[in-house]
Design a protein that fits this description.
The protein has 126 residues and is α+β, with helices and mostly antiparallel strands. It has three helices and six strands, in the order ααββαββββ. A six-stranded mixed beta sheet has the order 2-1-6-5-4-3, covered by helices on one side.
């Protein structure tokens, strides 16, 4: 098993390829997943089914969404932090972009908690 940061880099790579099933393999069955309501796909999700609903919300809201990790690093035992930028085309028309910090808790090679902190001047329309 690699480092916890490797798990997160693998998750970002899976998302970039549109491999949601591969990403879900990296998620613990009881995961707690939180993305702010200022994002059109945001909410509080639990378990793999909840995380699947989160990614389905991205697909419903975004024609395309690219998330680029500017940096991923281990902060302490199980905590991995990432700074990301996201941009894409909203299905409702127009483009959207935001910056974010992602905090992951990784236990035994699985993501057990995800928190997203978004840098927005105003909510994105969905």
């Amino acid at each position: 098993m690699g480092s916890n940061a490797d798990v997160i880099n693998e998750a970002y790579a899976a998302f970039a390829k549109g491999d949601v099933p591969g990403l879900l393999e990296l998620v613990d069955d009881g995961v707690d997943w939180v993305s702010p309501a200022t994002l059109p796909h945001g909410g509080h999700f639990t378990g793999k089914d909840g995380v699947l609903a989160f990614f389905q919300g991205i697909g419903t809201t975004w024609e395309s969404l690219i998330v680029e990790a500017e940096g991923v690093g281990e902060a302490e035992d199980n905590l991995v932090l990432a700074v990301v930028s996201a941009h894409g085309q909203l299905r409702s028309g127009g483009s959207g972009a935001y910056g974010a910090a992602h905090a992951f808790t990784v236990t035994n090679g699985k993501i057990t908690k995800f928190r997203e902190y978004v840098d927005l001047d105003a909510p994105l329309a969905g």
